[in-house]
Description:
Structural class: mainly alpha
Largest sheet: none
Helix content: over 70%
Number of strands: 0
Distance between the termini: 14 Å
Radius of gyration: 12 Å
Order of helices and strands: HHHH
Strand content: under 5%
Number of helices: 4
Amino acid sequence: MPDPELLQEARDSIETARERMDGDIADRLASIGDRLESAIEADRTLDHGTLARLQNSLSEIAETVEDAEPIDVARERLSRYREDVEGV
């Protein structure tokens, strides 16, 4: 069973990054954060496909910003979470 605390930590890191950004990047980060928040509130485990898409989006964003540290933290937390997701 994946640790839901890792999703919360990823969500918090994304929020930190979003606060530092503006425009389209901030909007994309808000969307990712909202998806994580929905899963947290519903006590729902995200599947591998969803996690992969979120991680890919975060990777794309990280390549375009100067301060990617909170995004990297979020990616790492999602990777750790994903290790315990059943399936693939």
